[in-house]
Specification:
This protein is of the alpha/beta class and 330 residues long. The protein is 45% helix and 12% strand. The chain folds into 2 domains: 29-111 and 133-199, Rossmann fold (3-Layer(aba) Sandwich), CATH 3.40.50.1980; 214-328, Rossmann fold (3-Layer(aba) Sandwich).
Length: 330
């Protein structure tokens, strides 16, 4: 790890000294984000007044992301660096020991974290155990001393906070606070955009509550690494997945796959949801066994190249997810 960091520092120095390698100077606030949700929140709130960049290239699965030297250089130059928290991005702590953006904001501040399913004996219930934010980060620090050894283990805490609209509102407010601190001259404009967007998030949150409360089937059957713990908790769904936890290295056991097949039959479900940006081979195998229809439930971690080209937004993803839940949980 030390050799890597030395190499990164050398490259940062080279970038700073080489003519023609830096972006043209701009009066706009440079905002670097790690994941798509806060990128999109910053896009809405910051508008044309900021220079906004997303570290993740389109199509990149974020749990497998490793920052490149040029990413470190970009973070070093940032006026604002927005990340999702140490649980989702354990590499950030090491990067910030050398990269020094002007302002760093953990957009998960104020969010109550959930423990993962692997911490429970009963995998059927949506009532996941809660951790307050500070305790969740303490647990993570104890289990993630070396990022290279624990690259994608989330320390027993669910990092996918943005799948709840209630949490998305907290994240968007954190983005607002960071932008205002970095660029107080545009506070009124940023705040007016945030107020309008917050009302949109609130309205969609209320629509989720209304629609899901009326669904006859409230068991969400998912054939991938389950990223919707916060959605299930917020909107009263139970869920089943053959995976325990969120490690991308995890593999489902035959027993867990059999349980999901049984759940499809017991609930008379015809829909099996799967995740974006990964090979849905497990979900496909279960669908082949049961005749269930595979439906993408988008976790909004990142966009595919095609989605990025189309300009897909967080709100569009969440509205589409609600429509798929409405149709699939009958």
């Amino acid at each position: 790890m030390k050799k890597i960091m030395v190499g990164l520092l050398v490259l940062v120095l080279l970038v700073g000294c080489s003519p023609g390698t830096q972006s043209p100077a701009s009066d706009k606030t440079l905002v670097i984000t790690t994941l798509f949700p806060q990128y999109d929140f910053a896009r809405v709130i910051g508008g044309e007044e900021i220079d906004l960049r997303l570290l993740l290239p389109p199509g990149t699965e974020p749990h497998q992301f490793e920052p490149k030297p040029q990413d470190v250089a970009s973070i070093s130059e940032a006026d604002v660096f927005l990340y999702t928290g140490d649980v989702m991005e354990p590499w950030v702590e090491g990067i910030l020991s050398s990269a020094k953006p002007a302002l760093v904001k953990d957009v998960s501040e104020g969010v109550t974290l959930l423990k993962t399913r692997e911490d429970h004996d009963d995998h059927d219930h949506h009532e996941e155990e809660h951790d307050d934010h500070e305790e969740g980060h303490d647990d993570h620090d104890e289990e993630h001393g070396d990022h290279e050894e624990h690259a994608h283990d989330h320390g027993g805490v669910d990092p996918h906070i943005w799948t709840s609209l209630e949490n998305a509102r907290i994240m968007a407010k954190n983005v607002l606070d960071a932008l205002v601190e970095a660029d107080p001259a545009h506070e009124e404009l940023f705040r007016s955009r945030w107020e309008a967007y917050d009302q949109e998030l609130l309205a969609l949150d209320e629509e989720y509550i209304s629609v899901i409360s009326e669904l006859p089937n409230k068991t969400l059957l998912y054939g991938g690494h389950f990223a919707f713990g916060y959605l299930a908790e917020r909107y009263g769904l139970t869920h089943r997945s053959p995976y325990a936890g969120y490690s991308t290295n995890a593999e489902p056991t035959p027993v867990e796959m059999a349980k999901l097949i049984d759940a499809l039959k017991e609930t008379h479900s015809t829909t099996l949801y799967f995740e974006e940006l990964t090979d849905p081979r497990v979900a496909q195998a279960i669908a082949d066994e049961t005749g269930a229809q595979l439906v993408l439930l988008h976790g909004a971690h990142n966009l595919s190249p095609e989605e990025a080209e189309q300009g897909l937004t967080y709100m569009q993803i969440m509205k589409d997810n609600l429509d798929k839940l409405r149709k699939g949980l009958q």
